[in-house]
Amino acid sequence: MRCLITGVAGFIGSHLAERLLSEGHEVCGIDVFNDCYPRQVKEQNIEGLLSSSRFDFIEGDLLRLPLVSLLDGVDWVFHLAARAGVRQGWGTEFGRYVDANVLATQRLLEAAVRAGNVRRFICASSSAVYGEATRLPVNEMAPLRPVSPYGVTKVATEQLCMLYHRNYGLPVVILRYFTVYGPRQRPDMAFYRFCSALVSGQPAHVYGDGLQTRDVTYVDDVVEANLLAATAPAAVGMALNIAGGVRVSILEVLDLLGEISGAPLPVVFLDEQRGEAHDTFADISQASLVLGYSPRVGLREGLRRELDYVIAYARSLTSRLYQGWSLSRQDKPATEGGEEGQ
Ligand SMILES: NC(=O)c1ccc[n+]([C@@H]2O[C@H](COP(=O)([O-])OP(=O)(O)OC[C@H]3O[C@@H](n4cnc5c(N)ncnc54)[C@H](O)[C@@H]3O)[C@@H](O)[C@H]2O)c1
């Protein structure tokens, strides 16, 4: 199949692209390299993909690219591009969330209808649409009452998808991810920050008392859900929870990381942040029924893989820094000083 992935240089998009290529599909990936975290991290995310002859990369903004022609011949669209994160998005930042999550989605949907060849349009949504759910585990019939500006834009994203499904018959599937983690996780997310703190010998910063709970999903399970959503006939027109089936408190995650690394992590508690639900926990029976989805990677194994990634990434940064430093020393004429010149 020919696939288009938006947000391909991001955390989840890059994993999805790898999996699609490994299964023999063709992938066109789009990313604007937004400023949510450093461009170099995203460039590294897609480094391995660029060597594949079945991968095309287009750097650009969904708000400006010629989407109808880019969608020509595309069978499956995986729409992951977004400005993510529940803590930001207040004040003037909100406009950037609306641009990336609402206007860009509407433009892509419109183009998909006009292109006329899209067989499945799979859109990444979030547990943030529920906000503080009154009953846990939360199922897809629960009211959508986001507690963050980001969540509000994700509700709008979903509504737009359903609008194009109902009016134009676009075969849309919405996947509501619950806290995704694993190698290449976004640096603003808690597990990444905790692993990074471990590696650098700093204390972990926890917002609130650490007793808040999350249903967490390993990235390979999210990727699997996307592939299932591309083919399951009954999924069209549905919004489905995609979660790991593991509900864990932040303090439990820190304990587990300490166990895995053999080094307990000191913690600094900070004020609770606006925009975060206290607890998330998904009922995934619909995804199991409709997609045959079942999470496979447990928390201990997933955390270990993320920690290994953060360690390897820190080492690669150190060696790049060292290479840059020694190259710049070699470039310097001896008269400018430095140890050799003294
Ligand atoms: N990571 C999670 O835990 C999680 C949970 C729920 C939902 N989601 C959703 O999953 C999707 C992927 O999340 P992620 O964690 O990989 O985020 P990410 O920030 O790593 O990736 C998103 C990518 O989209 C790109 N992008 C943003 N706006 C764009 C535009 N207008 N044009 C082209 N590219 C654009 C960014 O540059 C970025 O590389 C997002 O839609 C997010 O809302 C993620």
Question: What this model shows, in words?
Answer:
This protein has helices at 11-22, 39-47, 67-70, 94-115, 149-168, 190-200, 219-231, 250-261, 285-291, 299-331, and strands spanning 2-6, 26-31, 55-59, 76-79, 120-126, 172-177, 180-181, 204-207, 213-215, 217-218, 238-242, 247-249, 267-270. Strands 3-2-1-4-5-6-11 form a 7-stranded parallel sheet, with helices on both faces. It has a two-stranded parallel sheet with strand order 7-10. The protein has a two-stranded parallel ribbon with strand order 8-13. The protein has 10 helices and 13 strands. The longest helix is centred in the last third of the chain and has 33 residues, at 299-331. It has a single domain, classed as NAD(P)-binding Rossmann-like Domain (Rossmann fold, 3-Layer(aba) Sandwich). The protein is 42% helix and 16% strand. It has 342 residues and is an alpha/beta fold. α8 crosses α10 (299-331). The structure holds nicotinamide-adenine-dinucleotide. Nicotinamide-adenine-dinucleotide binds at residues 6-7, 9-13, 30-34, 36, 42, 61-63, 80-84, 100, 104, 124, 126, 177, 179-180, 186.
Q: Helical stretch count? A: 10
Ligand kinds: nicotinamide-adenine-dinucleotide
Helix content bin: 40-55%
Q: Please report the distance between the alpha carbons of the first and last residues.
A: 63 Å
CATH superfamily name?
NAD(P)-binding Rossmann-like Domain
**Poorly predicted segments:** 332-342
Q: Give the topology string: H per helix, E per strand.
A: EHEHEHEHEHEEHEEEHEEHEHH
Please, how many domains? 1
The biggest sheet, with number of strands, parallel, antiparallel or mixed sense and barrel status, is:
7 strands, parallel
Q: What does the average pLDDT come to?
A: 93
Number of strands: 13
Rg computed from alpha carbons, rounded to a whole number of angstroms: 21 Å
Shape: globular
The CATH architecture category equals: 3-Layer(aba) Sandwich
Strand order of the largest sheet: 3-2-1-4-5-6-11
